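Notes, p. 3: input format for complexes.
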Amino acid sequence: MIDFHSHILPCMDDGCESAEESVAVLELLYQSGVRKVMLTPHYYAEKESVDEFLLRRETSYKRLKEEINKTSLELPELSLGAEVKFFYGISQKTDVKKLCYEGTKCLLLEMPFEKWNKSVYAEVMNLQGRCGITTLIAHFNRYISLGNSFKDVVSLSSPLQLNAEVFEKKIGTGRWLKYLDTEDIVLGSDCHNMGTRKPNMDKAMRAVRNKYGEGFMHKIDNVGNMLLST
Ligand SMILES: [Fe+2]
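Output follows (230 residues plus fe (ii) ion):
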């Protein structure tokens, strides 16, 4: 299983506060069956340039690799990315491509936490069309209670990243859950630390397997591998 959404890089955002904590989180993810983790710190265009962000990310990644080299633990394979917060004009910004998961044209996009207007849809369509980016909608479940319906979210024609948090609550609370297996879904822990936002991928995988069956688990794997080969 691939974890498409995490805040594990040390001292990078509101995630892990030390490389030691990052290793502990990675160990937990490995134990729950995750074999590849996408490292996706928050990118906020209003705070820094893409290049400044990439420099900070590289420094943090180096620190993490140093810590990993000290251990003999079995840990998931790592790959870099970003969780990019939507902003108006994003589709005009050519260097946003540098924030895709490394080696791919797939971008983890955090959408506005409000009802989306026509300009929001247009920006996403332009990212896909003009920029040739595959937008992966981060924790899509969170936008549904904000005036956007499941149908609105699906109309973005994007694969959807589902946060494992959904399955910590009583499964079946959202009516849209029954349509989930018709969509292209990948999972993300969105884990931040070893405290309040620990990885919970094991619970998510168990819940998905129980509700949708093994076939859907394979589909999740296939969608994930396809996204990373774009
Ligand atoms: Fe996140």
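DSSP finds six helices and nine strands in the chain.
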